[in-house]
Amino acid sequence: MKRKNVITGACLSLILMSAPHTRLCAQQEPDEQAKQLDLKMQLLDTKLDLLDSKISLWENKPAELDMKIREIDRRILELDFDPQEFNARMQAIENELLEVKDQLGAGRSEVPDFRIYEEQYQPVFTSAIMLNPVRLFEGTFHLAYERLLTDRFSVSVSALATYATQKGLTNYFFENQVFSYYDMSSRSYTDYSGESIAGGGIILEAKNYLLADFPMHRKAPLGLYAAPQVLFRKIWITGEEQVWEDPDWVTKEVKQRLNVLSSGVLLGYKMPLAKVL
Predict the structure, then answer these.
(1) Does residue 134 lie in a domain region?
(2) Residue 183's domain spans which residues?
(3) pTM score, two decimals?
(4) What's the pLDDT at 21?
(5) Is 178 a residue whose pLDDT tops 60?
(6) β 180-183/248-270 pair status
């Protein structure tokens, strides 16, 4: 009996000794659960904030997209061309390139290189008929025929026909001429007033085209040239002079014939205005 009491007292002592530890553990466990619950609540609040931010972004996106679409439409309306027409033309060009590729054959896949080259004008003719427009202002029709001998040398024969008066294109040229003839009786030159100049002539030239050997320049019979020439002209001049015959001045008609022979060297430039023959 005494032994049972001892055992019972020992067990009771052990229970009393372990009771504070049990209460402490029981108190600590709810505190940790509360802290974990607080952390979870904070995480949940954070997630809710993120969700609100995403929702606001989703709500703003359609408005921004509408603004961008309106801006694109405005820029399209401001264009000077129709985009649909432009796309149609590009599609047509691509179709033509595909057709060319098909024509080249199944064994060749490359498309030929379409390049535009500036073609230099190279005359293939060896003869030329020319008109000198400058001589028209002195009343002379100057028509020439030229024949090439080499790539830079040629010979030319010209015919001259002259008729000038105080009217028309030849007015300035005619007014600046001085007319006079040699009077055998007085052994001096006598001036008179001219009325018309008429005649004809011929010119022989041998032309050397100076830039014919240089690339990218015109070949004979076009371009810059130097030419020795021989000219022969026969001219008839008619006019009037005042002669004193006592007791009055008398108007007499004057007819003068001139034979002109000259030689020299010309420097000129010839260009095509119209290819007729």
Answers:
(1) yes
(2) 127-270
(3) 0.50
(4) 47
(5) yes
(6) unpaired
